[in-house]
């Protein structure tokens, strides 16, 4: 029997203004199945270029957690180019996020093509596990952020393979739900604010298989926190079953 292997490659760790002012690729990941890119998680500013440089092409599936520029900023360009090439992407997001993306993020194309026609759309309501294909499924959970944002769990044959908070404050109930996954990625920053978790707030949730994406930190700044499992651009994480 052929063994299915999954990895997650970190494409960027940048925050809201990091790409424009500091040149950091926005926070994003690529899911690899047997070394092949199969699903992109978030497509913020700078991520599109990173995907082309790293893989030469976009996967069909793109998960979007919310409409902020550092998570969806490159989406209009990528969807239009891929659609024009005859290979529509499939955007996977919670249904309210889809409405915001279609109405606001993709408005620049509305004189030429309807947002619904730029891509295929898979837009389940929150907390409804939805199949992506024969083996993978996704379920969205609302976080608390300055823009409506959704965390998710990705399942492989009913096993919680990967969870990601997206942008959110530290919410105990949300974290408890997500922490069931074999690999759990938390978005946090050094200091707490009204819309993001802080490093100190998430430390008690850290366990084997748990990682932190340091919102807006470059690789040199990451070295200042050796006690935290902070992700770096280019890092690959094997997604291991517990």
Automatic annotation (TrEMBL):
Pfam families: Anti-Pycsar_Apyc1. The keyword Hydrolase applies. Residues 26-215 form the Metallo-beta-lactamase domain. One of its GO terms (molecular function) is hydrolase activity. Keywords: Hydrolase. This is MBL fold metallo-hydrolase.
């Amino acid at each position: 029997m052929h063994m299915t292997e999954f990895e997650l490659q970190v494409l960027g760790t940048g925050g809201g203004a990091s790409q424009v002012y500091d040149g950091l690729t926005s926070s994003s990941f690529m899911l690899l199945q047997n070394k092949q890119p199969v699903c992109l998680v978030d497509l913020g500013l700078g991520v599109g270029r990173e995907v082309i440089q790293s893989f030469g092409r976009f996967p069909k599936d793109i998960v979007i957690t919310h409409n902020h520029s550092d998570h969806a900023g490159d989406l209009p360009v990528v969807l239009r180019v891929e659609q024009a090439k005859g290979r529509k992407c499939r955007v996977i997001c919670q249904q309210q996020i889809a409405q915001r993306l279609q109405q606001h993020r993709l408005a620049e194309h509305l004189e030429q093509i309807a947002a619904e026609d730029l891509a295929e759309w898979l837009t389940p309501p929150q907390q409804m596990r939805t199949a992506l294909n024969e083996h993978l499924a996704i379920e969205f959970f609302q976080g608390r952020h300055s823009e409506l944002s959704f965390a998710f769990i990705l399942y492989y044959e009913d096993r919680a393979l990967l969870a990601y908070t997206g942008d959110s404050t530290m919410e105990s109930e949300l974290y408890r739900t997500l922490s069931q996954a074999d690999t759990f990625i938390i978005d946090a920053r050094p200091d707490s604010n009204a819309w993001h978790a802080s490093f100190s707030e998430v430390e008690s949730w850290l366990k084997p298989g748990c990682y932190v994406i340091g919102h807006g930190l470059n690789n040199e700044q990451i070295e200042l926190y050796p006690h935290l499992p902070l992700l770096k651009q280019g890092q690959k994480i094997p997604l291991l079953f517990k």
